[in-house]
What we know:
globular, 8-stranded parallel beta barrel, alpha/beta, 44% helix
Amino acid sequence: MRESNLIHGTVDRIQRRNFLCSTLGTIVTLAGSREVLGLEGKKPLPPPARKSRIAFNTANLVARVSNYRFELSHWMDQHQKTIAATDEAAWRAICREIAATGFKAVEIWEAHASPEVMSLERARLWKKILEDAGLRPVAYAGTLRRESLQMAAWMEIPHIDGGLGSLSLEQATSLCREFQIGFNLENHPEKSAAEILKKIGGGNQWLGVCVDTGWLGTQGVPAAEAIKTIGPFVRHAHIKDVKAAGKHETCLLGEGIVNVPACLKALSEIKYAGWYSWEDEPEDRNPFDSALRNRQWIENQLPA
Length: 304
């Protein structure tokens, strides 16, 4: 009861202006990012139908550089190795493989387009390679900072999904406003919807939530209920399943403990208009082996 009061109190304190802005956040952000790039004369691509809004998260390939064998605790080692290994040829090969499984959109993991090694010219090349493969960049998975916002702007990506790093909420909001690009906190250690909302100060026009269904399962949080509570501040979604609570061992969608169909239904109920980013960072297998199966599984579960 105490948690329920806290949750509802947080939501009730959201001003009507921020609520209305939040529902328009994706549109505002996309338009703004195009102004930063000097592309305001071009019309942004219209959002596709729900069943076509399924993206491949390239963080799925965290173990690619080690022949699909790694330990989750060594994530940052894989991150650095991936940065070093991702040249033009490697990025082109990744995009071809993603497209071969029927995906039309990607969420780019920071290690595949790291600000430390990217430039405007290289970012444009990376985007051209995506286009050549018939892929659309719809999100950037990484830590919020000026450099990642610049990368998102160069690649015309409307939001960053990940962690706040060392930024305060005020600094994060100011940076996002400057670049006209949103940020969505991806839940990992949080054990309730209230805790997630607290970390973004209740949410505003620029700060929202990227719901990771797998991490909710790991933390023993009823995922569908959390989605409904966070409501309009769910601005991105990582669709993932895990084998058991208490650890983060991913598995095929529908074969773990997360009620993913209920999560997809909850997203529909809150009128979610974002992308469904399939995420699975297996420690012992190639995710491309199940990419087609999981994409079709999501399509079949999504309401018409």
